[in-house]
Amino acid sequence: MVDEVEFTSYYGRPIIKPPVWKTPDVPLYLFLGGAAGSSAVLGALAEGTRRPALARVAHLTAGGGALASVAFLIHDLGRPSRFLNMLRVLKTTSPLSVGSWILAPFSALTTATAGAHLLGRFPLLRRFTGAGAAVLGGPMTTYTAALLADTAVPSWHEAHRELPVVFAGSAMAAGGGITTALTPLDEAGPARRVAAMGAAIELAAMHRVEHGHGLVSEPYRTGRAGKLLKTARACTATGAGLTLLAGRSRTAAAVSGALLAVGSVLTRFGVFDAGMASAKDPRYTVEPQRARARASEAAASRAAAGSRRGS
Amino acid sequence: MTAISSASAAFRGQDRGNRLFGPVPDVTGDRGYADDHPARVGFFTDTSVCIGCKACEVACKEWNLLPMDDAEGTVDALGLTGASYDNTGMLGANSWRHVAFVEQSRAVDLPMPTVGPPGAADGQRPLEDPPVVHPQVPASATTAEQSAPSQTASGDREIRWLMSSDVCKHCTHAACLDVCPTGSLFRTEFGTVVVQEDICNGCGYCVPACPYGVIDQRQDDGRVFKCTLCYDRLTDGLQPACASACPTESIQFGDLDALQARADQRLAALQEKGVEGARLYGRDETDGVGGAGAFFLLLDEPEVYGLPPDPVVTTRDLPAMWRSVGAGAAMVLGLIASAFVGRRR
Predict the structure, then answer these.
(1) What is the pLDDT of residues B204-215, one digit of tens each?
(2) Residue B277 located in a structural domain
(3) Does A299 contact chain B (CB < 8 Å)?
(4) Going by DSSP bridges, is the β-strand pair B193-195/B294-298 parallel, antiparallel, or unpaired?
(5) Pick the CATH number of A25-282 from 1.20.1440.20, 1.10.8.60, 1.20.1630.10, 3.40.50.720
(6) Considering only Cβ atoms within 10 Å of each terminal Cβ, which end of chain B, N or C, has fewer?
């Protein structure tokens, strides 16, 4: 047993640079993009299964969410006037580049679909753009998880396998919840089921993020992020429970949908905050790396000893 | 064809395919430059001879016209950290060289031959070159003495200063470059990594992607800035400003393979003198960033200097992330479709 070595840092300064992304811009961009993505899928399927009210609500949610998401993304740039430089190249090594190429056509298609609903015209065009948006809706819900995970931020990076699942569930809960709240009861069945499934996935995957990664899971349970995520859990769980009543009462549907949307918003803020906290404290950068370095040194010396014995 | 770093990667048949991780013998050619591209250049920063004069910081600021800032990167602010002689604080958008000052107080033995347990090991540590120190500070505060912390019979405490001029590592696998969505960051013909300021839209993605915390956004400008390894000077056949200004040759500029050979010699020489804390940082091309273009000789653990002990380029795990993103997206589509199956309500 080796003694616990005292943690050292350079005057307690962070080693990596915490993200310069602003709050609430970026957490809201994550939430709105997710809600829009799942709503676009809901809208296209509602259109195809002749649920006009659900289709209208879902497509308006998708269009509004996508536009607001783009607005928050542009507002967060250091040089907003150069937003179009995002579409200068397509790089698969950059989730933000891939994401821009998902977000740009998605927001165009959802805006066109929502516009057609509002104008009450162009039904054929509406079906076409709605279907296109639905195809991009899936990736819309998850690419933002790669955006966070593909950084040196310890609590985001280590959770890189679970975060896309969290964001997928959170997006379904939000999109399903909002459409549940705004759609007449007789057409909202699929939205309720999507909301309930999404909430269950969000809670389960988030539990793994909060507990599965040792030291770097800690920021998800402590401080402001811990409080946000605890509240998010309560909202999402209550909202999911209320979906059982949401088929009978419009009030229950509204409350359930609102709680699920709030839960999703708080999850995004909580995940964002936990990452910021893990970036600002050098402990979360140094200790896992130190442990990894020790382990590989030990393995190397064992291998060296083994080869000496063997020769 | 130019040999860039050691050929070990090619020997293992890994010269192909290491697009995200692992050694890349010719990173410049790998990124599409013709075979007659210049050799990969870099810095070898030998911190054992750094005197903390900050000439590198000043030369860099002057040559690159970097604005004044305080230790938190606030432009046009003059501030003292109050922690040490280091008032630069960190690398950032406005400080492309940063001299770290580390003051260590630890128990060491006085350098008298009679003190300490007798033995052959003791005799192998000659203090050939006793440093000139203040009379009240015992002369044993040298790196050589640090190699024998067990001989602290007398319990004297001494101060040692570690000074190190930090800089962008110009990684073989540069996360900042990988994640840049605009193509603003690019690999130059010298194998270095540079931001094109007329392209950068200030998305800030490179900032948390860097495992060393080098690149940063300049407040009230919005774009990101970092060391260019004096790209402008290199194209005119000059060496970078910091290396030109360094009075002790702590900062050495040159072709990377030559610097690596020199660093190996220097490390061997120090180890021969009994400086056990000495190690090279960023030299190993099998490390998490495929080896650094700017590497260091340190006298203590990297984290003491504010460097990550085992940095890994974040895009190493990007294939796993994309798989999870794809699976999540498919799950969303499948589950929402399933919600429409069967029941009418």
Answers:
(1) 999 999 999 999
(2) yes
(3) no
(4) unpaired
(5) 1.20.1630.10
(6) N
